[in-house]
Amino acid sequence: MTESNKTKPVIEFYEGEAPVELVISDIEIGTGAEAKPGDTVDVHYLGVDLETGEEFDSSWNRGQSVDFPLASLIAGWQVGIPGMKVGGRRQLVVPPHLAYGEPGGGHRLSGRTLIFIIDLLGVR
């Protein structure tokens, strides 16, 4: 685990128009096992709304990481996490169609472009 993975990340203001496709940016490259589609991942994450900058969810606030089967997550995570290595930190900018759908989709984040910073702690 590297020093940046030990503290809650800060998401910088996103410059420009909201992307229409998934944007994957490695902040730090891990050196451990690589996540593959279908894995269960242990992550710490922070999510904010691109437009407002408002934080809507954070495992950091709960004080513990979370295990997720990739197959049960939003499409942006299913595509954006594989290839990441344990110990890495990655930012995903996820447009609505890869998150919670278009406006009126029934989820409070429907129609929103979301930014996540994900620390990959483990895979199985």
Overall mean pLDDT: 93
> What name does CATH use for the topology?
Chitinase A, domain 3
Unreliable stretches: 1-5
The helix count comes to: 2
* Structural class by helix and strand composition: mainly beta
User: How many strand elements?
Assistant: 6
CATH hierarchy, class: Alpha Beta
The name of the CATH architecture is Roll
The portion of residues forming beta strands comes to 25-35%
Number of domains: 1
Largest sheet: 6 strands, antiparallel
C-alpha Rg (nearest Å): 14 Å
Oligomer state of the chains in this structure:
single chain
N→C terminal distance:
17 Å
| Shape call | globular
What helical percentage do the residues reach? under 10%
Q: Give the SSE string.
A: EEEHEHEE
Enzyme class: isomerase
Protein name: Peptidyl-prolyl cis-trans isomerase
Family: Belongs to the FKBP-type PPIase family.
Domain PPIase FKBP-type: 38-124
